[in-house]
Amino acid sequence: RGFLFVPVGVGTGVFVFDLNVAGTPPGPGVYAANLTAQKLLNTRTFQAQCRKQQTGNVLFCGATNGDVVAIDLTNGNTLGTTNVGGSVQSISTLASSFNGDIIYTTRSGTIGRLNFTAGAFTGVWGPSTITGATVLSPATSVGSGLYVGANGPTTARLYKLNIGNGSVLDNRSLVSTGAVGAVGVDAFQNRLAATTAAGAIWSFPTF
């Protein structure tokens, strides 16, 4: 059964849509017929996509005040909260081989890894910065590597980090002044794709 989780503005919370039931898409002043739940989360503003934990029934949402909130998908209750010190830009979830941890990035250019177990967040590493660069894209994991896009130094770059401790392992220049918006992976051909604000799409073998 498929669900869509939509974080929205202050005092509104997270809407949950059942993708198996037909309904009108939401718009100004309109609520979808297939709306199954709405949770008010203490007037936080959510601008990052929510992500489901790969090893459990937990949804993680990031807020502009720096909070990362864990939500029980069975009833919508808040299970735990931690603050990462900057407006949350993105959340990515890791596989069971990495304990179902999450990777977050912030709009101040930092990145970190969190574990969530038994209702409590624990920092694995971070918040970290990349010397001379500002992390801008959501993180994409491939094996034990973590790929993120950043705007510097000098050009937009694609960085490979150690997923275990956040250290920089390698990088590739995108020869573009446009910030990296997203990083994707083709697991069948072992290639990475990165888009930039300059309108370019770059493709690399995994490195």
How would you describe the shape? globular
Give the termini distance in whole angstroms: 36 Å
The parts where pLDDT drops under 50 for at least 5 residues are: 26-40
Main sheet properties: 4 strands, antiparallel
Mean pLDDT across every amino acid position: 78
Give me the number of helical elements.
Answer: 0
Count of DSSP E strands? 18
Helical proportion, percent range: under 10%
Topology as H/E string?
EEEEEEEEEEEEEEEEEE
The secondary-structure class comes to mainly beta
Strand content: over 45%
Radius of gyration: 18 Å
* Major sheet strand order: 4-5-6-7
In short:
This protein is mainly β and 207 residues long. The chain is 0% helix and 49% strand. A hairpin with a 6-residue loop joins strand 1 and strand 2.
Structural description of this entry:
- Mean pLDDT is 78; it is low at 26-40.
- The chain has strands spanning 3-7, 14-18, 35-39, 51-52, 58-62, 67-72, 78-83, 88-93, 102-106, 111-117, 120-128, 140-142, 145-151, 156-162, 168-173, 180-186, 191-196, 201-205.
- The radius of gyration is 18 Å and the shape is globular.
- Helices cover 0% and strands 49% of the residues.
- The strands form five sheets. A four-stranded antiparallel beta sheet has the order 4-5-6-7, with no helix packed on it. A four-stranded antiparallel beta sheet has the order 8-9-10-11, with no helix packed on it.
